[in-house]
């Protein structure tokens, strides 16, 4: 058996069919595909150096390429943290000015933000302002310049965050990554003569009734040299 393995290699094993006859049969090993049928290339990059900084330098594309669960997690965490931070800033302004202690006892007192008495009311005021709901019970007075400056900063920051995250989600939803799920490939590829030349041939089918305009197919051939 050792002589047969040295001759034919480790991919062969000895199979006994009778007491007087032996022969070597190839053992089929399932090889990992170089390119999946959905177009995903099974190549991993390693030992590049500075890979994390390169991904962070193009943060928008990195967020678009992330999986949906990470996108939703970043989406929720970003808005939650931004809401809590801005609501805390409104609460700090009300606390420094003494609006929290003057809860309607002095009619002549003008607070920075009307009807903001604690952190939940400051959080509700921020949500009403950011979402442009405006119920009417909470509003900024003209005797609060720091509140006006914070309101301008809040509007600019909210526009930037909305444009960044909503744009990222919109681009990710518009990418046809699942389009390959309705494309069928033949199970086996064959080599046959076509126009006097040997050609590698396989079939591709579309399960959808919609037509694919200007479709292009690229193939990769891996062989040893």
TrEMBL record:
Q: Which SUPFAM superfamilies match?
A: Voltage-gated potassium channels
Q: Which UniProt keywords apply?
A: Ion channel, Ion transport, Membrane, Potassium, Potassium transport, Transmembrane, Transmembrane helix, Transport, Voltage-gated channel
Which Pfam family, any one, appears in the UniProt record? IRK_C
In the bilayer, the protein is annotated as: Multi-pass membrane protein
Instruction: Show the stretches that span the lipid bilayer.
Output: 72-93, 148-171
Task: Quote the subcellular location field of this record.
Answer: Membrane
Check the record and name the InterPro entries matching this protein: IRK_C (IPR041647), K_chnl_inward-rec_Kir (IPR016449), K_chnl_inward-rec_Kir3.1 (IPR003274), K_chnl_inward-rec_Kir_cyto (IPR013518), Kir_TM (IPR040445)
Entries under Gene3D superfamilies matching the protein: 1.10.287.70, G protein-activated inward rectifier potassium channel 1 (2.60.40.1400)
Q: Domain named Potassium channel inwardly rectifying transmembrane: which ranges? A: 35-176
Q: Which GO biological process entries does UniProt record here?
A: monoatomic ion transmembrane transport
Domain Inward rectifier potassium channel C-terminal span(s) in chain numbering: 183-223
Question: Is Ribosomal protein among this UniProt entry's keywords?
Answer: no
- Protein family: Belongs to the inward rectifier-type potassium channel (TC 1.A.2.1) family.
**Mind telling me what this protein is named?**
G protein-activated inward rectifier potassium channel 1
């Amino acid at each position: 058996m050792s002589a047969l393995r040295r001759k034919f290699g480790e991919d062969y094993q000895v199979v006994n069919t009778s007491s007087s006859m032996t022969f070597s049969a190839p053992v089929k090993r399932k090889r990992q595909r170089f390119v999946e049928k959905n177009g995903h290339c099974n190549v991993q990059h390693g030992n590049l150096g500075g890979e994390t900084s390169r991904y962070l330098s193009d943060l928008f594309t990195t967020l678009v390429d992330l999986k949906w669960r990470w996108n939703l997690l970043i989406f929720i965490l970003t808005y939650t943290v931004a809401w809590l931070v801005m609501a805390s800033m409104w609460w700090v302004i009300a606390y420094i000015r003494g609006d929290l202690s003057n809860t309607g006892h002095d009619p002549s007192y003008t607070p920075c933000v009307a009807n903001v008495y604690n952190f939940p009311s400051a959080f509700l005021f921020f949500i009403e302002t950011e979402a442009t709901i405006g119920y009417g019970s909470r509003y900024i007075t003209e005797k609060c310049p720091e509140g006006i400056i914070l309101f301008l900063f809040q509007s600019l920051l909210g526009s930037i965050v909305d444009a960044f995250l909503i744009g990222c989600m919109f681009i990710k939803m518009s990418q046809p990554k699942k389009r390959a799920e309705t494309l069928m490939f033949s199970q086996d590829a064959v080599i046959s003569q076509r126009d006097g030349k040997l050609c590698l041939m396989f079939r591709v089918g579309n399960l959808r009734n919609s037509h694919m305009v200007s479709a292009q197919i690229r193939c990769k051939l891996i062989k040893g040299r």
